[in-house]
Amino acid sequence: MTTTTRENTKKSKRSILIVDDHPVVREGLAKVINNETDLFISGEAWDMPSIDTALKKERPDLIILDVSLSNSSGLDLIKVLNARENAPPILVLSMHDEALYAERFIRLGAKGYITKDEPTLTLLGAIRKVLRGQYYVSNAVISRVFSRMSKRENDVSIPEIEKLSDRELQVLEMMGQGVSTHQIADYLCLSMKTIQTYQKRTKEKLALKSLNDLIRYAGLWVNNNA
What we know:
Blueprint: H1 3-11, E1 14-19, H2 23-34, E2 39-45, H3 48-57, E3 62-65, E4 68-69, E5 72-73, H4 74-82, E6 90-94, H5 98-108, E7 112-115, H6 120-131, H7 139-149, H8 166-176, H9 181-188, H10 192-205, H11 211-224
Parallel strand pairs: 1-2, 1-3, 3-6, 6-7
Antiparallel strand pairs: 4-5
């Protein structure tokens, strides 16, 4: 196959940027996607600087984003990426419970949410659906959204963790990763007082008595969702 033929073949496919901080995951996704006749991986990234580098080389048709990066927040990444002109659509690929996260990320601008335990065919279907300009979430999430909208819910209580705001959930997750209050404040460019306010609200919503209880809860919650 000549160089020109290869380039024409590549142009006929839809390009995808993989963002995940685990090389093995990136390698596995690339192998699966590159085997498809209509898709190819145009680049790989693991944090915001490497995303910027990849986007300067080529604008992909889709970004597959793992929201649990070691030094970046998925919530913030989606906000930053969607604020850019002509931003590619984002499909979130995560190990986090979709019942808690899917709606949040869709509200922030993601075009789809799929968990890493889904079959390969489901992932490929989600990719193609988002590339067609549609949204992808599981049937369970769709049912959940309609259930919440329905007046027929007889005041079913919402789990306490779901009552947290996006920022409160972000602070809780960082606490569960062992990040100190001071480090959280620096990372989020917020004051210590503001972070402590988020912690206080989170503690109240989760009916916990002390900061130590909140730290223990955060650690257990992160480990259960790892």
